[in-house]
Design brief:
The protein is flat. Helix 1 packs across helix 5. The protein folds into 2 domains: 92 residues, Ubiquitin-like (UB roll) (Roll), CATH 3.10.20.10; 141 residues, Cytidine Deaminase, domain 2. Helix 7 links the parallel strand 12 and strand 13. The strands form 4 sheets. Strands 10-9-11-12-13-14 form a 6-stranded mixed sheet, with helices on both faces. The protein has a 5-stranded mixed sheet with strand order 5-6-3-4-7, with helices on one face. By secondary structure, it is of the alpha/beta class. The chain contains 8 helices and 15 strands. It is 26% helix and 32% strand.
Length: 280
């Protein structure tokens, strides 16, 4: 079954007094139920595609698992069950059990806001992972290239104009993985799920680039994955800035062209000439 990432709908366009019918592309959005063993954990409104990465990344960034080894298997529900394409079952490794308190907040997570699905704001701070790598440097010129590199890979956005993207880069600006989704936090979970499956976590020498804004939850997910640098083309929230400053993460917003705003962790940013001297 091909994931329904796109659909086509009839619409009418008004332009300069003229009304014309046309077919428009829309980003797909369907519920995905994540089941651990036999227990439903969450329902996430997402764009179908990379569902296994989404499920694994979600469990990891929500603090329900702490590493890849705790997952024995992950796959779509099959065997004729209704809506199997929209259900993912995760089987944990022997001896691994979910903390009932950790799962209590789960949840219905909407495509626009993950935090609003939590039972309480106190549950948002999952745990306190290690602080991001403080010994890495990134060239400001490399940072400026990230939006263009990400945008060039946004194929669903090209068709719909209405979907978020998250791109994982190394410190030289090489794109490692990109995922699109109607939910910005889902796109992040998909990318981190990809990294988890490829044994790249913690991502202590990587950067995350977002096509939208940086929310508290996105900063938290990046922190859990060990990312030292998070950049976006739009603004961060005040709580996102507060958390980034608390943990020493480099948080960049309004990254457009040759300009960006550093809200936290400016110490990691260097110029090309500075990097040359560091290598001497």
């Amino acid at each position: 079954m091909i994931p329904r990432t796109l659909s086509i709908t009839g619409a009418k366009e008004w332009c300069e007094g003229e009304l014309r019918p046309f077919d428009d592309y829309l980003a797909g959005e369907e519920p995905l139920e994540i089941v651990v063993g036999e227990s439903p954990i969450s329902v996430i409104m997402r764009t179908p595609g990379h569902d296994l990465e989404l499920a694994a990344g979600f469990l990891f960034t929500e603090g329900l698992i702490s590493n890849r080894a705790q997952i024995a298997s992950v796959g779509h529900v099959s065997g004729g069950e209704q809506n199997g394409a929209n259900r993912v079952r995760v089987v944990l490794a022997p001896g691994i059990e979910l903390d009932p308190e950790a799962t209590r907040r789960n949840f219905y997570t909407s495509s626009s806001c993950g935090v609003c699905g939590k039972a309480s704001i106190d549950a948002v701070r999952i745990y306190h992972p290690e602080r991001p790598n403080s010994h890495c440097n990134v060239d400001a010129d490399v940072i400026c290239r990230l939006p263009g590199e990400l945008r060039a890979e946004q194929l669903i956005f090209d068709r719909t104009g209405g979907i978020h993207a998250a791109g994982l880069f190394d410190l030289s600006g090489k794109l490692l993985a990109m995922r699109e989704d109607v939910g910005r936090h889902n796109a992040v979970d998909k990318v981190i799920g990809w990294a988890l499956a490829n044994d790249l976590v913690p991502l202590s020498n990587s950067m995350l680039m977002l096509s939208g804004r940086s929310s508290f939850e996105v900063v938290q997910k990046a922190l859990v994955a060990g990312l030292p640098v998070l950049a976006s083309v739009s603004a961060p929230s005040d709580l996102a800035v507060k958390l980034a400053r608390e943990v020493g993460m480099t948080l960049i917003g309004f990254l457009r062209g040759r300009r960006f705003v550093i809200y936290s962790g400016a110490n990691r940013l260097v110029t090309t000439s500075q990097l040359s001297r560091l290598g001497e």
